[in-house]
């Protein structure tokens, strides 16, 4: 009798504690959700760059991908874009690809920006924020570092120095 | 920790106050009392007796009604505090700025203590959860012994039990026929009558004792429904803005559904058409009659990766109006808001002296072209476009965002007279000619706007559970409130007729019923011992 009572009480309490713990955990996750976290497989996407070439992320398997979300109007983006361009020249022959995804801007703005800063890496426009939503980006600039197997190695938000960019590219060099 | 065997032969669990079967008092202390405490039938509330392991200790803590009441009081106080200042989701500024700026030190403290998001905070959820735990354990700990005691009760009861009932009376020389009449009356009053050796137990409305527990089950289901909202996919409440003529993905549908906005319609009440309300309308100004978005719902066919254009299949067309949402597969799309956005600007290339126009151009502010050819050697090139123009810190024109709130352009105007072009900076109500006097200007001709519909996408798969819980809650309340559990014992003791009666509420009703039942018999109306006690005291 006593043993049964203990078992029943333990089972009921366990269920209750589990329910409470799940609710608290789910509530916590809602506040701190990161759609694509470090260690995750980077979600695939397809975008067309300003020259009309299609870029599909999964086509870059075997290379490191420096995935940057940006906008022509965002001041830190203006600062870091030339750095990324410099390092792109250093690393492009070592198997590091830069994909710069502009969020919902006009072709004119992006083209003029690219021409002004003489950017050579592929730039594409995410017209309806689909890729941005998939990656759960909310503030620009945001950078995902994806290694040769397609895994996210690092997620960085905010401005980068040229040193940061170099370090990051070094990290994903295959 | 042994079970207690009563002299009637029934084995009661340890801690029982009144024998479940015959009602004999098993707890010494209880014998000193004039009247019995009939709560939970004097059954053994386990929690009060076993207190060995950690599990028992936790169990016993939550089994206490006192603890439950305190949890509720604390939650109530917290809920009240949450209503003093607006919660985080209803303010526009960042909370760290807002509270101090609007409410001073108190506001700052309010924010620092985390009351800005009180109803979503972990400790508030924990309080609610603990109330749930308390509810489950309190109920289990009471309903099971009560059920067992009521099930085990026998017709024949112990003298001590009968004597200590609140309504009790003895009749010396009653007739056998009186008992027969009494029994007949009881049956007429819808009592369930059991007989044993000439003793009667008449009982009705026992199910009203389960009312509070049915009510608690309802509450627990409501809490469980609330918990389900945290399960991904169970609850969706998202905003969705779609420009006229555009198609957007409906959020949280697993990239399955797309919504195309054909047109947004805003209608006002017409003063001339509604003569009856002419005065009221004149006083109130524009009164909106209808907010409507004509939409088409599409479903995606085939696989798709982000960035790719989806293949869509039309599902249905619908006119979304306030309170008339578009519904599909558990989702509801409500009309909730709208705004008007600048969509295009029109300019005319004009000779400043003669005011002669050499052609008009319309610039789409979302997708401006690089060059506009006006024919006859006239053309305009956009050198720079600032959708949300401002002067930067360095004095250079720049844009604050990608949204065309305040568009500005640097134009290069080509004409037969100036084949190399003239540069002009044009913003709203502002023109700068950086390289001296131009022959031509871009004369502003107008703005075109586009409506943007604001929708709320909602899905609540937990709603039916909450409704079910609510219904059970009410059934429990009604069950416990509108019926009473009444028992009347009629027993032969030493050649006398003993009558005792008990109800869980409404003693007046019980006594009136007893009077009716005892009509046409020689059996004395039993006395209300509690009332007698009180009159005795008053007499002193």
Automatic annotation (TrEMBL), chain A:
<keyword id="KW-1015">Disulfide bond</keyword>
<keyword id="KW-0472">Membrane</keyword>
<keyword id="KW-0201">Cytochrome c-type biogenesis</keyword>
<keyword id="KW-0676">Redox-active center</keyword>
<protein>
    <submittedName>
        <fullName>Thiol-disulfide oxidoreductase ResA</fullName>
    </submittedName>
</protein>
<dbReference type="InterPro" id="IPR013766">
    <property type="entry name" value="Thioredoxin_domain"/>
</dbReference>
<keyword id="KW-0735">Signal-anchor</keyword>
<keyword id="KW-1133">Transmembrane helix</keyword>
<dbReference type="InterPro" id="IPR017937">
    <property type="entry name" value="Thioredoxin_CS"/>
</dbReference>
<dbReference type="InterPro" id="IPR000866">
    <property type="entry name" value="AhpC/TSA"/>
</dbReference>
<feature type="transmembrane region" description="Helical">
    <location>
        <begin position="6"/>
        <end position="25"/>
    </location>
</feature>
<feature type="domain" description="Thioredoxin">
    <location>
        <begin position="36"/>
        <end position="174"/>
    </location>
</feature>
<dbReference type="Pfam" id="PF00578">
    <property type="entry name" value="AhpC-TSA"/>
</dbReference>
<keyword id="KW-0812">Transmembrane</keyword>
<dbReference type="InterPro" id="IPR036249">
    <property type="entry name" value="Thioredoxin-like_sf"/>
</dbReference>
<dbReference type="InterPro" id="IPR050553">
    <property type="entry name" value="Thioredoxin_ResA/DsbE_sf"/>
</dbReference>
TrEMBL record, chain B:
<keyword id="KW-0472">Membrane</keyword>
<keyword id="KW-0812">Transmembrane</keyword>
<dbReference type="Pfam" id="PF05140">
    <property type="entry name" value="ResB"/>
</dbReference>
<keyword id="KW-0201">Cytochrome c-type biogenesis</keyword>
<feature type="transmembrane region" description="Helical">
    <location>
        <begin position="67"/>
        <end position="85"/>
    </location>
</feature>
<keyword id="KW-1133">Transmembrane helix</keyword>
<feature type="transmembrane region" description="Helical">
    <location>
        <begin position="463"/>
        <end position="483"/>
    </location>
</feature>
<feature type="domain" description="ResB-like">
    <location>
        <begin position="65"/>
        <end position="515"/>
    </location>
</feature>
<dbReference type="InterPro" id="IPR007816">
    <property type="entry name" value="ResB-like_domain"/>
</dbReference>
<feature type="transmembrane region" description="Helical">
    <location>
        <begin position="122"/>
        <end position="144"/>
    </location>
</feature>
<protein>
    <submittedName>
        <fullName>Cytochrome c biogenesis protein</fullName>
    </submittedName>
</protein>
<feature type="transmembrane region" description="Helical">
    <location>
        <begin position="213"/>
        <end position="231"/>
    </location>
</feature>
<dbReference type="InterPro" id="IPR023494">
    <property type="entry name" value="Cyt_c_bgen_Ccs1/CcsB/ResB"/>
</dbReference>
């Amino acid at each position: 009798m006593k043993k049964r009572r203990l078992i029943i009480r333990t089972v009921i309490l366990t269920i209750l504690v589990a329910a409470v713990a799940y609710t608290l955990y789910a509530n916590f996750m809602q506040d701190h959700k990161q759609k694509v976290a470090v260690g995750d497989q980077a979600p695939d996407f397809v975008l067309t760059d300003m020259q009309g070439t299609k870029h599909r992320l999964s086509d870059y398997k075997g290379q490191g991908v420096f995935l940057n979300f940006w906008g022509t109007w965002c001041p830190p983006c203006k600062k870091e874009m030339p750095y990324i361009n410099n390092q792109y020249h250093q690393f492009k022959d070592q198997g590091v690809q830069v994909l710069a995804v502009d969020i919902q801007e006009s072709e004119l703005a992006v083209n003029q920006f690219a021409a002004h800063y003489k950017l050579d890496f592929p730039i594409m426009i995410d017209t309806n924020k689909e890729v941005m939503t998939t990656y759960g980006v909310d503030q620009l600039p945001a950078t995902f570092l994806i290694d040769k197997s397609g895994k996210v190695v690092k997620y960085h938000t905010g401005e980068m120095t040229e040193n940061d960019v170099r370090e990051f590219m070094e990290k994903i060099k295959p | 920790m042994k079970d207690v065997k009563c002299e009637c032969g029934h084995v009661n669990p340890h801690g029982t106050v009144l024998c479940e079967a015959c009602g004999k008092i098993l707890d010494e202390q209880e014998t000193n009392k004039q009247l019995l405490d009939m709560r939970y039938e004097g059954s053994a509330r386990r929690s009060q007796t076993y207190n060995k392991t950690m599990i028992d200790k936790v169990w016993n803590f939550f089994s206490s009604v006192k603890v439950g009441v305190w949890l509720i009081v604390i939650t109530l106080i917290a809920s009240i505090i949450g209503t003093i200042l607006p919660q985080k989701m209803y303010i526009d500024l960042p909370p760290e700025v807002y509270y101090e700026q609007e409410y001073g030190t108190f506001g700052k403290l309010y924010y620092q203590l985390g009351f800005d998001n009180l109803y979503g905070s972990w400790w508030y959820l924990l309080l609610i959860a603990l109330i749930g735990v308390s509810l489950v354990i309190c109920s289990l700990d009471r309903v099971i012994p009560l059920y067992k005691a009521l099930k085990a009760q026998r017709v024949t009861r112990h003298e001590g039990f009968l004597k200590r009932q609140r309504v009790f009376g003895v009749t010396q020389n009653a007739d056998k026929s009186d008992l027969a009449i009494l029994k007949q009356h009881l049956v007429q009053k819808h009592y369930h009558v059991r007989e044993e050796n000439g003793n009667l137990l008449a009982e009705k409305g026992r199910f009203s004792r389960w009312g509070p527990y049915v009510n608690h089950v309802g509450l627990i289901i409501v809490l469980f429904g609330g918990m389900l909202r945290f399960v991904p996919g169970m609850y969706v409440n998202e905003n969705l803005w779609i420009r006229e003529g555009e198609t957007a993905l409906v959020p949280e549908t697993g990239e399955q559904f797309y919504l195309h906005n054909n047109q947004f319609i805003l209608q006002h009440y017409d003063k001339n058409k509604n003569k009856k309300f002419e005065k009221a309308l004149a006083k109130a100004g524009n009164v909106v009659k209808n907010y409507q978005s004509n939409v088409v719902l599409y479903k995606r066919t085939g696989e798709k990766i982000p960035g790719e254009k989806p293949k869509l299949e039309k599902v249905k067309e619908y006119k979304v109006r306030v309170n008339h949402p578009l519904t599909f597969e558990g989702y509801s799309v409500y009309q909730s808001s709208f705004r008007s956005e600048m969509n295009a600007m029109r300019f005319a290339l004009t000779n400043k002296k003669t005011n002669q126009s050499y052609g008009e151009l319309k610039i789409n502010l979302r997708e401006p072209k690089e060059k506009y050819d006006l024919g006859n050697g006239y053309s305009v090139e956009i050198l720079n476009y600032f959708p949300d123009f401002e002067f930067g810190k360095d004095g250079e024109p720049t844009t604050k965002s990608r949204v065309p709130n305040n568009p500005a352009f640097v134009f290069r105007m080509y004409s037969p007279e100036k084949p190399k072009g003239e540069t002009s900076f044009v913003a709203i109500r502002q023109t700068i000619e950086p390289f001296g006097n131009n022959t031509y200007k871009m004369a502003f001709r107008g703005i075109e706007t586009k409506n943007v519909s604001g929708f709320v996408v909602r899905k609540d798969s937990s709603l039916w559970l909450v409704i079910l819980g609510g219904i059970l809650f009410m059934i429990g309340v009604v069950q416990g409130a509108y019926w009473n559990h009444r028992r009347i014992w009629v027993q032969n003791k030493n050649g006398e007729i003993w009558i005792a009666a008990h109800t869980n509420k409404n003693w007046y009703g019980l006594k009136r019923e007893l009077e009716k039942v005892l009509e046409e018999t020689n059996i004395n109306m039993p006395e209300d011992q509690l009332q007698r006690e009180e009159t005795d005291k008053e007499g002193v």
